[in-house]
Amino acid sequence: MAPATPTTPTTPTTPTAPAEPGGPILTITDLTRSYGRGERARAALRGVSLTVAAGEWVAVVGPSGCGKSTLLHLVGGLDTPDVGSVRIGGEEISALTPTKRALLRRRRVGFVFQSYNLVPHLDVSGNVELGLRVAGVGRRAARARAAEVLDDFGLADLARALPATLSGGQQQRVAIARAVAGRPDLVLADEPTGALDTAASRRVVELLRAEHGRGQTLVMVTHDYAVAAEADRVVFLRDGRIVDERRPGGRRAATGGEAAGDAGMATAVGAGASLVVVVDDDDEDASTARPSGDGPGNDLNDLLGLGSW
Ligand SMILES: Nc1ncnc2c1ncn2[C@@H]1O[C@H](COP(=O)(O)OP(=O)(O)OP(=O)(O)O)[C@@H](O)[C@H]1O
User: Fold this and answer.
1) For atom 1 of ligand 1, which residue has the closest CA?
2) 215 with 55: CB under 8 angstroms?
3) Compositional bias (Low complexity) spans (predicted)?
4) Cβ of 44 less than 6 Å from ligand 1
């Protein structure tokens, strides 16, 4: 399918059909993923099902090793399940070839990582433009849209700065700008405040809240209860299963599973976490995948490596 060229700089479009109006943006069904073989096999996810509505903000919490990152990687098409399916905007992603999955991911999903994953030799504007270019937006439109988003995010003065000269909080704001600039169906954030101090975390949460206010659908992994409490719904994972869902404020979500209880919530939220930086290095086709039309060239794919975001 040919990528659409935006008609104006401020409205980057995706080449895929939009999600059905009023329907879920994300439908996860019976996701199961194990690592290792034989006696060493370990189930990271055991039959997880979850539906996320358009515009919803869902936080996923749980103790270290419970499967949060695995879930995010499967949702974002960075990994494939053993069993189950992931549908984004009505498109089944797990059945796609690695190349098609990578292309769909770039058009439909924005990623935010704990360690920002900015391209070090591109300036702030270049990083945001790159996110748009790999989604199929033309060069001039990407530049104009990047300027607009950086302005919205209070980062216009830093447009020519290299990531290494920025604070962690500034880098994460750039990473969020990159993730949302193309108005993807879904933004996935893996511990977006995990490396930040309280003040910087607060600013990042403010940005996420603003994006949520604009209707952006967000799925976020976090260990910070104050951050999770910003979401519409908090999903508790334990041992690869959803054990509870709550609306912040104590209300049980309609689709809640087995109760975790308040002690479970505290345990889930308080446990320490480590970031898994995602590089789908078995996905070699993705490194040479090239959208047609006005999309980016292989130089961008060289910069991107094998799809680290
Ligand atoms: N590539 C892999 N190879 C082998 N085992 C893996 C791999 N990725 C994850 N696992 C295992 O799967 C389980 C779930 O891991 P995952 O990273 O999804 O948990 P998590 O909840 O995100 O943990 P944390 O909060 O520490 O980041 C863990 O036991 C982990 O060791």
Assistant:
1) 35
2) yes
3) 1-19, 288-309
4) yes
